[in-house]
Amino acid sequence: MDKLTARDDIAIQLVFIRHGESYGNLGLPTPEGYSEEDTPLTAHGLKQAQALADYWFDGVEIAHIYASPFSRTIQTIYPSAQKLGQKIELLPDLLEYGSTTAGCETEKIKRNFPLALPCTAEPSPAGGTLTLPVPESDEQAQARAKRFVEYVKSVYHRGETVVVSTHGTFFSYLVRAALNVVSADTFNSQIDNSAVTVVALRNGNTPLLRTANNTSHLRTI
């Protein structure tokens, strides 16, 4: 499956997206104005973000966009939000595994990403706080992934499509939470930069992994 097509038995369709190529991914020096943990996208990563919008979100109805409050995750989904005319809700529960900061500074978010809604309260709507335990345990990461999925399920359950922009390591926690799989020994996944994984939560049935690590949009760049 390449496109976000609808199905009658879907309660909610979760579109998980890993951020595009970042300076951190390549081991490059962090650009001025960014912290080591809040590394931005490279020029190629920005092209990936635009290709993502052009390929996946043409004529698609999206109920909500959530993102981790780091520059690279916001940059990845920003062209899609612009195309869809949607805001991006930033949630600390989507921070990368083991993050030691709360993401991009609020003033930078307001200045650089006017469509993004900064995290301003503890706890956030999903129940998480603005900072993670240091160090974060595997069990704690599992818990916040499950908390986010349960939160979205409590809000949407009529076939809506929800987009989630997050990080490589925490990505697998989110997908396992959506599929009701706890152990990485049972299910793990490779996630490339800007790749799309879609999990459909179905009415009265087991979750459905519709596509995984899909990078069809990168054929255009």
Describe it.
- By secondary structure, the chain is an alpha/beta fold.
- It has a single domain, classed as Phosphoglycerate mutase-like (Rossmann fold), CATH 3.40.50.1240.
- Helix content is 31%, strand content 18%.
- The protein contains 6 helices and 7 strands.
- The protein has helices spanning 23-26, 43-56, 71-84, 106-112, 138-155, 168-179, and strands spanning 10-18, 64-67, 88-90, 116-117, 160-166, 196-202, 208-214.
- It has a 7-stranded mixed sheet.
- Helix 2 packs parallel to helix 3 (71-84) and helix 5 crosses helix 6 (168-179).
- The protein is globular, with a radius of gyration of 16 Å.
- The mean pLDDT is 91.
Features:
221 residues; seven-stranded mixed beta sheet; 6 helices; Rossmann fold; globular; single chain; alpha/beta
Order of helices and strands: EHHEHEHEHEHEE
| Cα radius of gyration in angstroms | 16 Å
Task: State the CATH topology.
Answer: Rossmann fold
Percent in helix: 25-40%
Helix/strand-derived class?
A: alpha/beta
The first-level CATH class name: Alpha Beta
Largest sheet: 7 strands, mixed
Q: Can you tell me the CATH architecture?
A: 3-Layer(aba) Sandwich
Poorly predicted runs: none
Summed up, the domain count is: 1
Q: CATH homologous superfamily?
A: Phosphoglycerate mutase-like
Question: Total number of β-strand segments?
Answer: 7
Strand order in the sheet with the most strands: 4-3-2-5-1-6-7
Number of helices: 6
Query: What's the pLDDT, averaged over the residues?
Result: 91
What's the shape? globular
